[in-house]
Amino acid sequence: MTIQVKEFDMLIEIQKHLNAEGSRPELAAALLRTINRMHREYERAWVKNHRPKPVPESMQKQLAKEEAPLMRRLLDAGYPLEDMDHHESDLYVYVTPLSTKVISLTCVFCKILGTRWVR
Question: What is the pLDDT of residues 62-100, one digit of tens each?
Fold first, then answer.
């Protein structure tokens, strides 16, 4: 059974009116059950049609690398651990060509992904 959005909204308004009036509570309850069932069917149909395709393995590796914390990225790039310090969520590193490159790439990735670059 297909129902238009306008018709669905009208059913909800009728149910609200019957429920507020209180004269036909059994009818309001039956209408609410029907509305809920239709909503669940709509959600199932939407999920079936919008199921994402599996992410290729090469892309999963790239995304995992992009989601790594800044400290892990610096260590993976070869920045020495003894040249790092931190306080709570702040990370302190010396300005070197390597640290500048890693931090710049982190900013670019996070701008593309729409996330904060400090993790």
Answer: 666 666 788 888 898 899 999 999 888 788 999 999 998
User: Is the CB of residue 28 less than 8 Å from the CB of residue 19?
Assistant: yes
**CB neighbour class for 102 (10 Å; exposed up to 12, middle 13-18, buried from 19):** buried
Which residue has 């059913």 as its token pair?
11
**Per-residue burial over 15-26, b = 16 or more CB atoms within 10 Å of its CB, e = otherwise:** beebeeeeeeee
The model's pTM is 0.42
Amino acid at 72: R
Buried/exposed 60-98: b ≥16 CB within 10 Å, e otherwise = eeeeeebeeebeebbeeeebeeeebeeeeeebebeeeee
Question: Concatenated DSSP letters for 11-57?
Answer: HHHHHHHHHHH-S-HHHHHHHHHHHHHHHHHHHHHHHHHTPPPPPPH
How many whole angstroms separate alpha carbon 16 and alpha carbon 24?
Answer: 11
Q: Which residues on adjacent β-strands are paired with residue 85? A: 92
